[in-house]
Amino acid sequence: MLWIPAPPDDLGLEPGPACLLCHRHDERLWNLKSFVVRGRLLHDKEGWAFTPEKFIPGMGIGGLWGYVRFVLTGRRNTRRYLAARGLPRPKVPWGDWSAVLEGRPREERREVP
Q1: Cα(40)–Cα(19) distance, integer angstroms
Q2: What are 10-28's pLDDT values in tens digits?
Q3: What confidence score (pLDDT) does residue 110 get?
Q4: Are 23 and 33 in contact (CB under 8 A)?
Q5: Which residues contact residue 39 at a Cβ distance below 8 angstroms, ignoring those fewer than 6 apart?
Q6: What is the DSSP letter of 110?
Q7: Which helix (H) or strand (E) holds 34?
Q8: How far apart are CA 40 and CA 16, in angstroms?
Q9: What are the domain boundaries of the chain?
């Protein structure tokens, strides 16, 4: 159990299911490591507490297999999400991303197949 000392009153906490996302990275935002802990947010006369129930590894956890699992799980969850809502897979403007990485100004960007 993780006690939450004196959270601000206007934070809007409510007892029930809760998720805690934890991550870290270097100063250039590389080498990301992340995980999620699912559990319950509890409140009693002594204050607030988070009770963890499930650990969900994210990026950078578990070596190469952890990375593969993260990508495959993400792809599967995305397909399910889109199918449940009858949505097409979104088109990614890869040309814009390439231009950003190359440092080109917005006016010079164009879609690259």
Answers
A1: 8
A2: 888 999 999 999 999 999 8
A3: 60
A4: yes
A5: 17, 18, 19, 20, 50, 51, 52, 53, 54
A6: -
A7: strand 33-44
A8: 5
A9: 2-63+85-108
